[in-house]
Specification:
Elements: H1 2-10, H2 16-30
Helix pairs in contact: 1-2
C-alpha cells in the first residue's frame, strides 16, 4: 500500500522529485 502511495505522489502535480523523496523515506522505513 505504501508503494502505491509513493507511485501516486510521483505522478502528482508537485513533480517526480517529491515522489522520489517519499519513496526513499518509505524505503528507509521498510528496511
Amino acid at each position: 500500500m505504501s508503494t502505491a502511495v509513493a507511485m501516486n505522489t510521483s505522478h502528482d502535480a508537485t513533480g517526480s522529485s517529491t515522489g522520489k523523496y517519499y519513496a526513499s523515506k518509505i524505503a528507509e522505513l521498510r528496511e
